[in-house]
Design brief:
The chain is α/β, with parallel strands linked by helices. The chain has 25 helices and eleven strands.
Length: 534
């Protein structure tokens, strides 16, 4: 039985199996992605962040794991030649007789299935209302440089559909986890807890675009409808609206005309704006997982594209929203070794983020993401009532919004129990949610007094985001409060390595928690963990 929380691997008889630390981390990563391809590059980036390692290091760990699992025939850990590895969780039960479910066997690497939601269980319940996931569209042209366009098209359709109250729509981050690999509809439906799957392909040919879309009922393996669109590139936004309306009409017969109108998001004035917007959000999606030395570079790459999108269409709300996010990220996290380093904690940086977010809301009052971004910036400017109101408006516009940041805003406002409930809802809407959601959940658990749950969650968050400082800070606080002195000291030391000047008092001042008792408890725990108090 593998338990990455407790860092143990045991045989069916309960005997401990020894693994070198790095080999254990590789096993946890593979188990957490059970059934999915994990490339050698991804293993290297995750297990050896900021360190250049050879293929031999990865191969040594794979050999250690196979020896420990007695997997000489490679039934548990399969090699995909020239690509990477696939961990087959279902084989554990057959080979080792653990008596656990496949989900427990392969996912105990941090899933704690149904509790922390780090990765989906083997099966999720299907909601009562019509439920759908828009899978990433295939890039039929084959040029990987065009992947951002086919992914972005599917994301845009997801955003449109999510606004309909009668639908349950899986968030786009979870949908993207199925990009560029073969999928079996029934398995995807089980993993995400939905009934309908929209998939398709996109081919760009000069100034024309061809889109083929299929809607499948996974419960019966039947195709509900299929449609192809062959249009000039200028017609792509009409195609997106047509796709969204067709699905809604097919799945939910009681959608009102007003809701249909609300879902038709304003299209950008030029295709150049749309293209740079898609490139920008693709770069922005990589920022959180970036090694420390690449964080600033990727942030500025995203900003360059988004700034060009806004220059081409100054009222394009999605691009304004994402551009605001690049400025806020530069304010809250130092982008070392880049020109953006000078923007850290500067009032002008936050002012720029705020102005862009407000412009986005003015340009498209029905864009939920714009209201959420405005709320996030206001939260860190300590305008907490206005921040909560902005997030509440975002959720009103988009009932399917999987917005983890709202959970953190609730927790800091002294509403930790509500935050926990909200974040669990986010995890259901977005089963393959970004790992930062776990950091928000650990934060909320700590403030709610559920310290053990906070530590268990922050362990996973820290393992998945070793370069995100707040994961280690909350880990240190929780471990210290539980009396886990060594674990707390290690987490505090990791946080200090990421930011040597950090102190407990500085962190607590940054948060400005609404409840003074929470602030005192957090400060005492961080000092106990070894984080300086001045």
């Amino acid at each position: 039985m593998l338990d990455c929380f407790a860092r143990t691997l045991r045989t069916a008889g309960g005997a401990d199996v020894e693994l070198r630390p790095k080999s254990f981390e590789v096993l946890c990563l593979l188990a957490s992605r059970s059934g999915k391809l994990v490339t050698r590059d991804e293993i290297a980036r995750t297990v050896w962040p900021d360190v250049v390692v050879t293929d031999e290091s990865v191969s040594r760990c794979i050999s250690d794991i196979r020896f420990a699992l007695e997997d000489r025939s490679q039934k548990l850990l399969k090699t995909v030649p020239r690509r990477g590895y696939v961990f087959v969780a279902e084989a554990i039960e057959r080979s080792h007789g653990t008596g656990t479910s496949p989900a427990e066997a392969g996912a105990s690497a941090g899933v704690a299935v149904g509790l922390r939601g780090s990765w989906p269980a083997d099966s999720l319940p299907v909601p009562d209302r019509p439920s759908v996931v828009v899978l990433p569209f295939e890039n039929a042209g084959g040029d990987p440089r065009e992947d951002y366009f086919s992914d972005g098209l599917a994301q845009d359709v997801t955003v449109r559909l999510a606004k309909f109250r009668d639908l349950f729509v899986i968030a786009r981050d979870s949908a993207l986890s199925y990009a560029r690999r073969p999928v079996e509809p029934r398995r995807v439906a089980r993993e995400l807890g939905v009934r309908y799957l929209l998939s398709g392909s996109v081919r760009r040919d000069g100034e024309r675009i061809r889109i083929v879309a299929h809607l499948v009922d996974a419960a019966t393996s039947t195709q509900v409808w299929a449609e192809s669109y062959d249009r000039e590139m200028t017609g792509i936004f009409a195609v997106q609206d047509e796709l969204a309306q067709k699905i809604v009409v097919t799945l939910a017969a009681h959608i009102t005309r007003a809701e249909l109108d609300r879902a038709l998001r304003k299209a950008p004035e030029t295709l150049l704006a749309y293209d740079h917007y898609l490139r920008g959000i693709a770069a922005l999606a990589l920022v959180d997982a970036s090694p420390v030395g690449q964080y600033g570079e990727r942030l500025l790459e995203a900003r360059r594209h988004l700034a060009r999108a806004v220059a081409a269409d100054p009222r394009y709300a999605p691009a304004l929203t994402a551009l605001s996010d690049t400025w806020h990220r530069a304010w809250i996290v130092p982008a070392v070794n880049t020109p953006a380093a000078a923007e850290y904690r500067q009032p002008a940086t936050s002012d720029r983020a705020l102005a862009l977010a407000r412009t986005a809301v003015e340009a498209d009052p029905f864009l939920a993401e714009a209201h959420a971004q405005l709320g996030w910036v206001l939260h860190w400017r300590y305008e907490r009532a206005e921040a909560l109101a902005a997030f509440e408006r975002a959720v009103e516009i988009n009932p399917n919004m999987a917005e983890g940041r709202y959970g953190m805003v609730l927790a800091h406002a002294g509403r930790a129990r509500e935050a926990i409930a909200w974040l669990k809802r986010v995890m259901r809407l977005d089963p393959y949610h970004r790992p930062i959601v776990l950091s928000y959940l650990a934060n909320a658990y700590f403030l709610a007094g559920e310290t053990l749950a906070s530590v268990e969650t922050s362990r996973v968050a820290a393992a998945r985001m070793p370069n995100v400082i707040q994961t280690h800070i909350w880990h240190a606080a929780g471990a210290a409060q539980l009396g886990l002195a060594d674990e707390a000291a290690q987490a505090a030391a990791h946080a200090t390595r990421l930011r040597p000047e950090l102190t407990a008092s500085e962190f607590v001042r940054l948060l400005r928690l609404a409840n003074s008792a929470d602030a005192e408890r957090l400060s005492a725990a961080l000092v106990k963990a070894g984080l300086g108090s001045t």
